């Protein structure tokens, strides 16, 4: 199962990097979102996919699942949501200022503000 998820992570990284390298700001935002989903899956896979035991049962549990990867993924989800919302606001302001979301056209333009 880890090999299948690792292949999916590689595909998500490839698609995310391809979208980030485009000239359209909307594609860049979508690329960062896809890349962050790849990171979430990577953290989950590297933490080990264990089955059967809950995270913590008590001090005398025979087996348990490590809750640290799940906590790291939850933190990464919150951070990626904040970064995505910041990128959306930044793209909206850039579109309002320059009238386009093409990065090549914005490069030489000067804002009126």
Mean pLDDT, all residues: 85
Radius of gyration: 20 Å
% residues in beta strands: under 5%
- Give the strand tally: 0
Low-confidence stretches: none
Membrane topology: Multi-pass membrane protein
Subcellular location: Cell membrane
GO cellular component, one term: plasma membrane
Protein name: Na(+)/H(+) antiporter subunit C
Features:
cell membrane, mainly alpha, 0% strand, 113 residues, NUOK/Mnh_C1-like, 4 helices
Quick summary of this structure?
This protein has 4 helices and no strands. It is mostly helical and 113 residues long.
Molecular structure report:
This is Na(+)/H(+) antiporter subunit C. Belongs to the CPA3 antiporters (TC 2.A.63) subunit C family. By secondary structure, the protein is mainly α. Helix content is 69%, strand content 0%. It has four helices and no strands. The chain has helices at residues 2-20, 25-46, 68-98, 103-108. Helix 1 (2-20) runs antiparallel to helix 2 (25-46) and helix 2 runs antiparallel to helix 3. The longest helix has 31 residues, at 68-98.
Helix and strand arrangement:
Elements: H1 2-20, H2 25-46, H3 68-98, H4 103-108
Helix pairs in contact: 1-2, 2-3
């Amino acid at each position: 199962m880890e090999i299948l998820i690792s292949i999916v992570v590689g595909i998500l990284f490839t698609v995310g990097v391809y979208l980030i390298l485009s000239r359209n700001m909307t594609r860049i935002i979508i690329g960062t979102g896809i890349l962050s989903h790849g990171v979430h899956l990577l953290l989950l896979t590297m933490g080990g996919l264990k089955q059967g035991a809950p995270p913590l049962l008590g001090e005398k549990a025979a087996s348990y699942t490590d809750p640290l990867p799940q906590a790291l993924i939850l933190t990464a989800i919150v951070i990626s949501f904040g970064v995505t919302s910041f990128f959306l606001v930044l793209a909206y302001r850039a579109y309002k200022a320059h009238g386009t979301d093409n990065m090549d056209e914005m490069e030489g333009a000067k804002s009126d503000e």
